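Q: My collaborator sent me two sequences in one message, no labels, and asked for predicted structures for both. Can we handle them in order? The first one she listed is below.
A: Yes, handling them in the order given. First sequence, followed by its structure tokens:
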Amino acid sequence: MTQNRALQLLYDLRYLTIVLTTKGEEMKSGRSKQDPRVEKVADYLEALIDPFDLDVFTPHLHGHLSRLLQRTSVLFGLVTGTENQFTPRSSTFNSQEAHNILPLASSQIRFGLLPLSMTSTRKAKSAGRSIEPRAQ
């Protein structure tokens, strides 16, 4: 078996284990540990992968796994019950992220007010009244 195939099977095994294991089963048994048979297969697959490559690919596998679990919970959340099994996004600061200050501002004026004086509008109203012909 090739290393790529072993990585894919390890990814699939972890995905299926998380999706098909419900929280109720873990609470009843009092353990959040995986089934020993699943652990045995995962250990076998990890033995087929070069240890250096496994260390390199493990963070990527976990990232893609959590993203896939989120998609699965959106599509089949009621069936699978994976609502709390994925990890939330980290709130650590990354210097490469684009800054968005707009939600942080408390009061935002999108358009400035026009400088109008009240005297000019009153004069225009009074001039408009005097021009109108009076019908008798």
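Q: And the one she listed second?
A: Here it is, processed independently of the first:
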Amino acid sequence: QAIAALASVREIILVGSKAPIGFFAYPNKPSKHYPEDAGITVLTRPEQDAESALRALADELGCPAAVAMPDPGPKPAVDRGPPTPEGLARTVAALMPEDAIIVDEAVSYGRGFFPHTFAAAPHEWLQITGGAIGCGLPLATGAAVGGGGRRVINLQADGSAMYTVQALWTQAREKLPITTIILSNRKYQILLGEYQGVGANPGRTALDMMDLGNPDIGWASLAKSLGVEAATATTLEQVGDLLAQSLTQSGPFLIELVI
């Protein structure tokens, strides 16, 4: 998808970013996601002040000081029925408070979240930036510590959460304003997608290694054992009710959404 999206690009300007190069190597596919003859211009490196650089560039080009933002449309409503990525995104967008911090490690389930949150209240969005997983729970913890009381909503894949589940204990100990929504599909779907991406046909042993059942992880019980109030949802109505409930509380709350 990235290669197709950049196929016609002739010049890439990097603003606080690195060149679009895949962090996984695939057989018979290029690691560079842009054409070989495309030029690369670095406006700012990741550690530099990108906003100031963009303002200076706009001044140099004679751009207007402000431009009208496109109308994002009506604010989404809480969705109903069985969980879907789009329905969850609309539900979170409908309920998130202004200045919320969204921490997104939804991984395979969260690829379509952005279009459904354009009309939500103003918020910040933090997410995984590479191929390693497990950052979500500690990232949400750090965001809450530095957030000055702003509510953090962590959209969290279950497999990734198992890498750093101890962060829930820290959230309880510090009474941090975090709502964690565990997306419990009980498998490493992102790795199954990698098999599909390279055209592999995994056997029974490989599939079993991607399974997070046998036994199923009881996220509500696990969270409670670490001091975090928790409940399980199986519908979008339930997750909406629990999310709204969590936003009235000052401490952490975990919702296991079985998908």
